[in-house]
Structures are given as C-alpha cells and as structure tokens.
C-alpha cells in the first residue's frame, strides 16, 4: 500500500472477542469474508460509531474517530435492510443527509434526484418506502449513502435480504458504485468478493486469518473458511467474445450479468466440481479441454481434489476416489481437464476507475 491509508483500524471489542488490524487505501474496496459470528459486523459497527471499542484506535484520513458521533464521521453504512425513513419519500430520504449537512432545500433535492437517476429509480422519487420492492428500496438506500459523499462506504451484506433474481442487478450497480471509491464490504459470498473487492480479509473468531488480493485468496485459499466457500478456478485474461484467453490457455464460457466487451480484461470462473479429469484429449467435443500437469492429490471424504497447473495457472478438479484410482493419477502426470462452457461464468475484470457510474448500471 502506498501513501497514508484512508482507514486505519486497529482495535479490540473485548465483549465480543474481536481484535483486528485492517488498513484500506484510498479508492480500494476490501471484502471482509467469514462465517457467522466471526466479528465482521462488529468491525463495521465500530467504524460507523455505533459501537465503542474497548481499546485501540480507528483513523480516517489521519483523524482519530474516538468520540466522534456517527453522523460526523463521513462514513456511510449500507445494511442488509435499506432502513429508509418510512414517513419520507424516496427523494426526501436521499436529500436528508445533504440537508442535515447544511445544503439548501432545493440543492439537496436536485442532488437527490440525480442520485436516484444514477441508481435507476429516478421514476420512483415520490414513493414512500412501503411502496417500493426490496430491490428498489435498496437502490434508494445506495443513493442515500452516496449522496452523503462519505469518505468511506461500509456495506454489510447488501444483497443478503434480496431475492436471488434481483441480487445480480444490484451487484452490477454496486460494482459501478464501488469503482474508485473507498469501501469495506462484508459478505459470505465468494462471488461478491470477486466482483466487488480488490482485496479480501478473511475473519474467523474475531481475528484476520488470511488476507490478500481477491483472486489470490479465492483461487489459493489458505484458511479453512476461504477454502470452503472459494477454492474456485479463476482464469484471468482477455475476453474475445467466446473465450477468456490468458497465460497460454483459453476457456470458453457464458458471460454473466456483468459481461465484458470483446477485447476487455475478464475472468472465467468455474467450480472444481464442474471439472473432470482424463488422460487423453477428447475428440471433437465442444467442451473446454485444458492440458495440465497434476501437482497434488488431496482426499476429501470419498472424493479427491486434484490440483494441477495449466501453463502457469493453478486449477483444481473435484473427482471421485474411484476416478483417481482408475486413472492411477500421481503428481507429475499430464492430464486433460474437461469443463463444459455452460459451467463457466465470465465476468468483466474489476477496473480501478474514475468513480463515475457506468451508464449501464441501471437494471430492473
Ligand atoms: N448485540 C450484540 N451483543 C453482544 N454480542 C454480540 C452482539 N452482536 C454480536 N455479538 C457477538 O459478537 C461476535 C461477533 O459478531 P458479529 O455480528 O460481528 O459477527 P459477523 O461476522 O458479522 O456475523 P454475521 O455474518 O452472522 O453477521 C459474536 O460472538 C456474536 O455472538
């Protein structure tokens, strides 16, 4: 990390046995990943000023936040539930922060209208929260958080309370929102971390057990929790319209809800359980066949995790013990890893950018 970090968190909440040290650079999004009760929300609560640490310090741009009330911290918290004021319209909810900061009524409303447009709910400005769907209300909450122009944005599982069919559009919106902003996002979901965060810190039992660039942690997890939720195959490269090409291999797949344009950097993601292992290359099949070398065999109950490298890229397959025995696999063997293109999702790579929302972040 170069320069002074925007956030320095080095604090203990003794009653919850949560002690950790975390830095976030300006413009960086860090995901806190971990099981229930690990202490992720506690950290957000301390930063937001909802919870006092028993010792330590929290600094934002060099300013010690001890004793600073929540509304003067320049930190916005987006929770699982939108938590809008029920008696105010969507527009008034968004204008509330700027108004209480001292903006005039008309300027605050104009700004609020712009934010609602940018998150795709400009036409719902007059509605009260009870007249909004969960996804719409969460968009209003995003607009409200951003209208306050926070130095740091905190997101506590922002997709968790949404229907699965609404979550991808909000995730797409948040990707645009978070580009170039300083943020911490709490999640249980490896895909959220991959798509939203530059860096991941894995929290277990109140401590950081692992941290690093998101793709490293998710593809080569070292902590038990990260291994359980991640252990994904990730191939980074350039999207040519049908395959991601990188480091000597090409992986065909289906663009996700956040598709890259041809020629853009992209990442192909597939589960080890979608990969089968063969000695010989398959003939004339539409599936991906990746020539690889076995590096390690790891028992997982009645299955095996086969670790291999294709070029410089580490990949893994989860196969039955019977298959490993039948193939008589040992480390050093050349194999073909086979995965159907329909099992591979392709996402645009995270871009560190200007902070402007892309025009197409508006979704259903
Ligand atoms: N209001 C509270 N009062 C006392 N202890 C709490 C409270 N909320 C959480 N805890 C405890 O503090 C510890 C950390 O919980 P925290 O909610 O920060 O975890 P988390 O990682 O955010 O979990 P989740 O993913 O379930 O939200 C846990 O032991 C939890 O039981």
From TrEMBL:
Q: Which SUPFAM superfamilies match?
A: MOP-like, P-loop containing nucleoside triphosphate hydrolases
Q: Which InterPro entries match?
A: AAA+_ATPase, ABC_SmlMolc_Importer, ABC_transporter-like_ATP-bd, ABC_transporter-like_CS, Mo/tungstate-bd_C_term_dom, Mop_domain, P-loop_NTPase, Transp-assoc_OB_typ1
- The residue ranges of the ABC transporter domain are 2-230
Q: Where do the Mop domain residues begin and end?
A: 283-348
Q: Name one GO biological process term.
A: molybdate ion transport
Query: What keywords are annotated for this sequence in UniProt?
Result: ATP-binding, Molybdenum, Nucleotide-binding, Transport
Q: What is this protein called?
A: Molybdate transport system ATP-binding protein
The species this protein belongs to is Nocardioides terrae
């Amino acid at each position: 990390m170069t320069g002074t970090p925007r956030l320095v968190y080095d604090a203990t909440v003794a009653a919850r046995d949560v002690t950790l040290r975390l830095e976030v650079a300006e413009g960086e999004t860090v995901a806190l990943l971990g099981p229930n009760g690990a202490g992720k929300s506690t950290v957000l609560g301390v930063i937001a000023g909802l919870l006092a640490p028993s010792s330590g310090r929290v600094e934002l741009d060099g300013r010690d936040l001890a004793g600073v009330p929540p509304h003067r911290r320049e930190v916005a918290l987006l929770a699982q539930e939108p938590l809008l004021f029920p008696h105010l319209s969507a527009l008034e909810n968004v204008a509330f922060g700027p108004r209480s900061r001292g903006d005039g009524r008309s300027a605050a409303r104009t700004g609020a209208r712009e934010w609602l447009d940018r998150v795709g709910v400009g036409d719902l400005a007059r509605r009260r929260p009870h007249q909004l769907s969960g996804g719409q209300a969460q968009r209003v909450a995003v607009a409200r958080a951003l209208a306050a122009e926070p130095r740091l944005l905190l997101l506590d599982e922002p997709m968790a309370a949404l229907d699965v069919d609404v979550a991808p559009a909000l995730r797409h919106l948040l990707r645009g929102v978070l580009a170039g902003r300083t943020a911490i996002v709490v999640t249980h979901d490896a895909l959220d971390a991959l798509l939203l965060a530059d860096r991941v810190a894995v929290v277990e039992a109140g401590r950081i057990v692992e941290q690093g660039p998101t793709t490293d942690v998710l593809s080569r997890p070292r902590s038990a929790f990260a291994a359980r939720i991640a252990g994904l195959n990730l191939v980074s490269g350039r999207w040519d319209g049908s395959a991601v090409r990188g480091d000597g291999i090409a992986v065909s797949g289906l663009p996700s809800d956040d598709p890259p344009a041809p020629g853009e950097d992209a990442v192909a993601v597939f589960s080890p359980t979608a990969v089968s292992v063969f000695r010989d290359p398959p003939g004339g099949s539409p599936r991906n066949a990746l020539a690889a070398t076995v590096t390690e065999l790891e028992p997982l109950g009645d299955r095996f995790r086969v670790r291999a490298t294709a070029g410089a890229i580490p990949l893994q397959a989860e196969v039955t013990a019977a298959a490993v025995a039948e193939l008589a696999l040992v480390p050093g063997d050349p194999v073909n890893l086979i995965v159907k293109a329909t099992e591979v999702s392709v996402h645009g790579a995270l871009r560190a950018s200007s902070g402007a929302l892309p025009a197409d972040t508006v979704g259903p």
